[in-house]
Amino acid sequence: MHNSRGEIGLGKKRSTSVSSRALSKTIDEIFIRFSSALRTAQIYEPNNQTFIGHIHSLFSLLENILSQEGGASFRFQENTLFFNNTRIKFDFFSYNNFKFLADEFREKDIGAIGFEPGLSDKELSEFIVLLANPPENKEASFEDISTQLISRGITHIFLERIHPYDAAARMKAEKVKPAAKKVFFRSIKHLKESFENNKENQKLQLKTTRRLIQAMVDLISRDESFIIGMTNIKNYDDYTVNHSTNVAVLSLCFGRRLGLDKEELTELGLSAFFHDIGKLDIPEEILDKKDKLSEEERKIMEKHTLHGVEKLLSLKDSSFLPVKTLYVVLEHHLWANLSGYPNYWKRNKISLYSKIVKICDFFDSVTTERPYRDYVLTWDQALSLMLEKSGTEFDPVLLKVFASMVGVYPIGSLVALNTEELGIVMEANPEVALMLRPKVKLITDRNGKKIDGEIIDLTEMNPTKGEYKRSIVKSLDPRQYNIQVADYFLAQEN
Ligand SMILES: [Fe+2]
Ligand SMILES: [Fe+2]
Questions:
Q1: Ligand 2 center to residue 192 CA distance, Å?
Q2: How many whole angstroms from 274 Cα to the centroid of ligand 2?
Q3: Confidence band (pLDDT; 50, 70, 90) for 399?
Q4: Rounded distance from Cα 258 to ligand 2 centre (Å)
Q5: 110 and 73, same structural domain?
Q6: pLDDT tens digit string along 217-251?
Q7: Residues whose CB falls within 8 Å of the CB of residue 334, separated by 6 or more in sequence, listed in order
Q8: How many domains does the chain have?
Q9: Over the stretch 92-114, which tens digit does the pLDDT of each residue have?
Q10: Closest ligand (CA of 362)
């Protein structure tokens, strides 16, 4: 046994797994309290009872940690959080709170925040009020907050400036949306080309596919909601091509929420991208047939899973393809209860990636117009249909995570407000309690006239009346209002 610090740390973690679990629970709670306190301070005065309540809970959590650990520091680095130098993992519930705080800190150039024993609740409360009301000059907010800490005598909280690498990542944030669009359309183009080339038995250019998927993974870690919104682009090109890109995007966002690492995400993305590659061998008359398929046609259609596996195995560059991809191609129409097809199934288990792709595949498909179906579902209709099939067709736990990802009012859905304006949901509210209050872009005024309106935050309150300025009444089907949701995403440059 070595006596290096790393070894000691590891040993300690192993022998006290219960207490390390308790610690990560405490850290989760700190994030919930911290983000709630900050959000409350953004709306109310410091003497507000809710705010005082949040500060009180946050303070006792921190005090507890300080007495056990002798110090508490949170460091945000490359979208990862370290607590006293240990990397913190999130489940999907705590992730939103982490993301909210990480964004707030990044905006103010804060890379790390530390608390020292002796911290008082007054210091904590003043600090959060400071964070909630940043100075006019955003460029200098780090200096400003640091100076204010000193001038107010807050001596048990210290800040560290963001690492230049992360600052650079933040600078690039304005470029995320144009970059996301580029990657999205390049993926469609690339997939189309590889499908066409494949018909002539050429190589699939898997290296390029891998690079595109990696680019998507990076972009998703920067702006998930925008990229999920892009999957509202339907039938831009050949159905299978556009659909495969959408399923890859949704699966990547989903996998990221499940905590998969970059390499795993790339494998998942590749698998999702190629899930329907076997459809290349199915005649178009069957693929796009308006009427119900005959028994024989249905059998041919179902063969796309087997054809897909054969096709991938016969590729010259198939060594670039993860084995998991073969499973997804084969299993993506199997149900959680093992019915579905291929129906001679002998295994009693379906791979995780197949279950993920199954959910994203179904979701994208029922929300897209198809010649053989006279209905298209809105996102919330699709979700409620899927929830009815939870446990039979879909894995119940995964489905819950997926539902929370696309949300009650998912990104890209058209909503009617109580002010009689219409809007498109642009960004979900990270706080579960405020799920019904996303950010919405106004697209018509009160008289139904189309406008290029501003993006409003539905948590905005009317200060004199003490009530919300606007609320969502219900979600609407964009086709009935002749609205192309995708246009609003594509028009949005930042
Ligand atoms: Fe399929
Ligand atoms: Fe599919």
A1: 15
A2: 9
A3: very high
A4: 21
A5: yes
A6: 888 877 777 778 778 777 777 888 889 999 999 99
A7: 340, 341, 342, 345, 350, 354, 358
A8: 3
A9: 556 667 777 877 887 788 888 99
A10: 2
